[in-house]
Amino acid sequence: MKHYTSIHDIDDMGNWIEEAKALKANPLKHVELGRNKTIGLLFFNSSLRTRLSTQKAALNLGMNPIVMNVSGDAWGIEFGDGTVMNGTTAEHIKEAAAVVSQYCDIIAVRAFPTLTDKVKDESEQVLKSFVKYASVPIVNMESATGHPLQGLTDALTISEHAQVSKPKVVLSWAPHTKALPHAVANSFVQAMQKMDVEFVIANPEGYDLNPEITGDTPIFHNQKEAFKDADFVYTKNWSSYESYGKVIKKDSDWMITKDEIGKAKFLHCLPVRRNVVVEDAVLDSDSSLVIQQANNRTYAAQLVLKKLLENL
Ligand SMILES: NCCC[C@H](NC(=O)CCC(=O)O)C(=O)O
Ligand SMILES: NC(=O)OP(=O)(O)O
Fold it and tell me: Which among 224, 229, 245, 254 is placed 20 to 30 Å from 111, CA to CA?
């Protein structure tokens, strides 16, 4: 594997999950693999988990992480080709990515979508420009359309907590005050499609995800119906895909409650807004796996970095 930019880079989900479990059981086993290797983490957006767990993963492999908040601290980067740079951007991605490649053996990038320009977002301009102009492997730490470190984490967490051989997993939309990206939901869908689970999606009308991603996965517009006999309820808000980036429904009736999820385990990528997305009674109960899930971010990232290091 040359880069890790999407769930499609996972060639065998079952094997990857087993390897991630082995790393979790013995996190320092490969501490020599990354010795004297540097990973640069570049953030165009905020982060708590990705920023810390990816550094932790690198440290467990003996790597040296260096971190930069690009949008706040670096020169404004130009991504357009042939642009006359007489505006606000001060250096081109051609130089920026090539320069960071001089200092780093792996580069990881977080760059969220605009949610106003669907064509631009789907072109994955920032992530793909790093792939094109850097000379080292690129890791996606959440791009416009995907969050594959999260998707791998979620697959690992469901595998660890499954009580039956083919659990029922529901991805449910929930309300939020802001327009949020589709990246987490997209990667979760792609990860579940690679697992031996009964997988369905629940969202209000007008909130169907990109049909090219959801494919044959059943979509329910009735949350109660979708939650019937669920073993796992994975919750996430996203803005409309059809009316791109718009918030067309904020009603609290889709908020996740204890009554509704019943015996199902609750998952969320975090950060989560309490009593908007999900009520306290769920997050504060044994039904919630969100902290175990966040812990698994380290081992998912560690597996990805290990595979990239082995291929350097
Ligand atoms: N990396 C995990 C999720 C990041 C982002 N959430 C957010 O922006 C929530 C912000 C807020 O609640 O204000 C998203 O949905 O893609
Ligand atoms: N789940 C996740 O990616 O969290 P952060 O946005 O805090 O990194």
Answer: 254
Q: Is 173 flagged in the annotation as binding?
A: no
Residue 300: strand, helix, or coil? helix
Instruction: Note the ipTM here.
Output: 0.99
Residue with structure tokens 């969050």?
147
CA 144/CA 56 separation, integer angstroms: 24
User: Residues with beta carbon inside 6 Å of ligand 2?
Assistant: 47-51, 142, 150, 269-271
Quote the pTM value: 0.98
Specify which residues 37 forms β-bridges with. none
Measured from the CB, is residue 271 less than 6 Å from ligand 1? yes
Interstrand relation of 91-92 and 77-78 (parallel, antiparallel or unpaired) = parallel
Question: Could you tell me the pLDDT band of residue 249, with boundaries at 50, 70 and 90?
Answer: confident
Closest CA to 153 of 261, 4, 302: 302
Backbone angles phi, psi at 169, to 5 degrees: -120, 130
Determine whether the shortest distance from the Cβ of 245 to ligand 1 is under 6 A.
Answer: no
What is d(CA 160, CA 236) in angstroms, rounded to the nearest whole number? 21
Evaluated on CA atoms 273, 204, 250, 246, the torsion sign reads positive
Ligand nearest to the CA of 183: 1
Please work out whether the CB of residue 113 comes within 6 Å of at least one atom of ligand 1: no
Which residues are bridge partners to 91 per DSSP?
77
